[in-house]
Amino acid sequence: MMRDVVIVGGSIAAVTAADALRQQGHDGPITIVSDERHAPYVRPPLSKGMLKGTESVDSVFMAPLRADLDFRPKTRARGLDLGRRRVLLEGGEELPYDGLVVASGARARRLGPPEAGELVVRDLDDALRLRESLTTARSVVIVGGGFLGMEIASTARGLGLDVTVVDRDPPLVRQFGAFLAGHMTRAALAAGVRLVHAPDGVRLAGTPATAVLTGDGAPLEADVIVTAAGDLPNVEWLAGSGLGGPGGLLVDERCRVAPGVVAAGDVVTRVSDHTDLPRRSPHWGSAIDQARAAALALLKGDEAPEYRPSPYYWTEQWGLDIKICGRILPGCETHVVTGSMEEGSALLQWTRDGATVAAATVNHRMPVVKLRKLAAAPVPERTTG
Ligand SMILES: Cc1cc2nc3c(=O)[nH]c(=O)nc-3n(C[C@H](O)[C@H](O)[C@H](O)COP(=O)(O)OP(=O)(O)OC[C@H]3O[C@@H](n4cnc5c(N)ncnc54)[C@H](O)[C@@H]3O)c2cc1C
């Protein structure tokens, strides 16, 4: 019988799981432990509107939590006793549970030790620190040319800073494919960003870091060094329980991990439908969908529907607002359905082996439900590739 539920993590996966449990009629106690000092907030604006200053700090907080949840901020889970069904908290308290939701998310990967002082953007305090630094600095080097790195680059350039982005790979190709990444790269270059290719990786120089060294040793100096080089799943607190590894916490098709334990969000890795290999999908929409599936699985077991990924993610940079449904897989063909990247507004589809696998809007108002349909719809005949 499911009575006490404990949720570890205080962000979107945790809050969604708690809401879903209540909506499904669970009326037992739900305790949420979060090691952050803040009430739950929304992360995507941290590298977009909030960093630019177009969104206020207050606007990033989620709606107040339901009164029937026991939310404990500044509370860190340090261990899990699977056999006794207890979450062990720092300070010694133990929380017994009948059902556990692991929603401990991920943290920013760092290149240097804490004294290197590199900035990252993972939580609200990180974003406030970076915003403050960008308002006084003249130059910034950003390590990482993915979504996050390029969003920060776009904002920093908008603020008039000298901006360098350094990466092992060409920016955004892994996320966007060559066509869209090419346009974004040209937009970055046109805005005056310096892109540095460092195939052998980089390291930080100085304490605190004042430069980034590439493989050939050329120092990239700047007032501010930001690392935006991916994230690491927060699984360390599970050490000793037999659950979780460096790649994340492996779930089954219903987001279950072990008897009475489910997981959702950035901490999760699952076997991909495309590659048969475990992979994470660290996106806001995936965290919500997985949390709903995990809550149902906790209450209904095998009767719960399987989680069906329906990837949706977005980015804002260089004046382009891009929303993507589906997955742009290696070897995809790009189709411009309407508009053009040069005009700054377009509707795109991607196909592989003749089947549509993804669709995107670029500065184009289309409801997400419609975009999802387009991500599976045949490509209209007269499109440009
Ligand atoms: C700057 C930024 C911009 C982003 N932009 C986008 C975007 O545009 N579109 C998109 O789709 N996605 C975006 N993402 C990704 C999205 O925010 C994540 O996928 C989402 O936040 C994952 O939610 P989560 O609840 O799984 O984990 P998280 O948001 O990582 O939250 C996990 C929580 O658990 C807490 N925690 C960890 N360990 C413990 C412990 N042992 N005890 C107690 N608490 C613990 C953490 O402090 C944190 O509060 C962005 C992420 C960042 C950082």
TrEMBL record:
Q: Which residues form a coiled coil?
A: none
Q: Which residues form the Reductase C-terminal domain?
A: 312-377
Q: Which SUPFAM superfamilies match?
A: FAD/NAD(P)-binding domain (SSF51905), FAD/NAD-linked reductases, dimerisation (C-terminal) domain (SSF55424)
Keyword line = FAD, Flavoprotein, Oxidoreductase
Q: What is this protein called?
A: NADPH-dependent 2,4-dienoyl-CoA reductase/sulfur reductase-like enzyme
User: InterPro entries recorded for this chain?
Assistant: FAD-oxidoreductase/Apoptosis, FAD/NAD-bd_sf, FAD/NAD-binding_dom, FAD/NAD-linked_Rdtase_dimer_sf, Reductase_C
Cellular compartments per GO CC: cytoplasm
Q: What is the lineage of its organism?
A: Bacteria, Bacillati, Actinomycetota, Actinomycetes, Streptosporangiales
This protein's superkingdom?
A: Bacteria
Q: Which organism is it from?
A: Sphaerisporangium krabiense
Q: Which GO terms describe its molecular function?
A: oxidoreductase activity, acting on NAD(P)H
The Swiss-Prot or TrEMBL record lists the needed cofactor(s) as: FAD
Domain FAD/NAD(P)-binding, by residue range, is 4-290
